[in-house]
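Q: What does the assembly look like in three dimensions?
Context provided by user:
Components: two
Sequences:
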Amino acid sequence: MNEKPEKLIDKKGLRLDGRKPDQLRAVKLEVGVIPNADGSAYIEQGKNKILVGVYGPREAHPKHLALQDRTVLKCRYHMAPFSVQERKSPAPSRREVELSKVIRESLEPAIFMEYYPRTMIDLTIEVLQADGGTRCASITAASLALADSGIPMRDLVVACAAGKAEDTIVLDLMDEEDKMGSADVPVALMPNLNAITLLQMDGKLTPEEFETAVNLAIEGCKQIYAMQKEALRAKYAGAKEEADE
Amino acid sequence: MPTFFEPKQIATPGDLVAEGEYFAGENTYKEDKRIYANRTGIVEYDNKTVNIVALKSFYMPKPGDIIIGTVVGIGFNGWTIDLNGPYQAFLRPSDVLSRPFKPQKDELSQVLDIGDLVVAKIVSYDRTHDPQITVAEPGLGKITRGQIIKITPTKIPRVIGKKGSMISMIKQETDCQIILGLNGVVLVTGKTPDEEQAALMAIHKVEEESHTSGLTDRITQMLKKEKSKREEVKE
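A: Here is the predicted structure of the complete assembly.
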């Protein structure tokens, strides 16, 4: 499994897992998977498997963190020790602390924070299996979990990455493309409001390439957005079908 | 002035529901004459007002509401009550004791202990202060018997039904007394545990299928079946 592939894109223009450059990985979304949490969601995107739980809004603990005019979003992104090839130490790493902050800041614009002053919302993201693009998958699942918990939101937040692998701009990078490719551009979007809440770039791209990458990522986001809405509705579809009989 | 959803359709946060001269009602927000949903719920139009009946939410205190809360803390001069929502309420001893409270003499934990349930009324609440509640009114106070069930607060009106049709039917078919806390906690007191169980089942079913039609009839059928079962056992 540790053999390095020679080429990221073959002669036919297909990627390592047989995808076209502008094709997403298979996405599976599920809502309300943790009965003990106020809201929860589960995402599988390619080999990524991520579980998100939301608690709150509730009394802020510790109390001094509470704000008088709005709620506080507390976000914890954590990778399970068994989520990667080499065992990862369960202690929060520099990368996890940073991703927690990035994910929090990409979700905050979507939440009506000012509705619930002096409270706190706890968001827990557990990566069970990682295969590149976990921050994007985490944001997608986290916004679903927030919506599931009944927290008022301006829009759902969707995230998707685009990047460059061997001179081709590709959508939704997987682990190998992320590590061996030359650039990675994660984008988080509120599609109905057409507002970007996260935009990062790692690697080198020309301004033209950057623009195509961002536009490609936005297209990917919109595809996942449709699935998000479907997942939220699916939770209540069961009872509806029963009634129609 | 188009609307983008049929009544009774499910909208998700961020969905554009209506555009033009409409008012933003419950669980919606307005931006440049466009009305968006901010929670997952059923779309309803009331004249020019767009409402979303949320499928899941949490309780926000409102003065005058009757609620059922749990004692979670005892302080020097009162109890902290959990309301099943973002904010915890404060209950003063003078309301419970119906006489002045003397810290030297009265032991608060002997009146209400942690874990006790109370039926109470919200006295005051605003954004800057936690809610105050009282039990100094007829029908309020500590709960001594019965069973409780927690449901999403937005489903309480559905449990009541049109002009109380659903709740009076459940009461009649199960012979139970039912107190609905607006914070989503429901107390059921009956003569036998079986009757209470039947009422709880019915309320749970209403919560699960609140957005479907013909619900009252189905619940009636279910309860009648349960009732005949109980009578068979008795004989």
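Follow-up: Helices of chain A lie at 94-107, 134-148, 175-180, 207-244.
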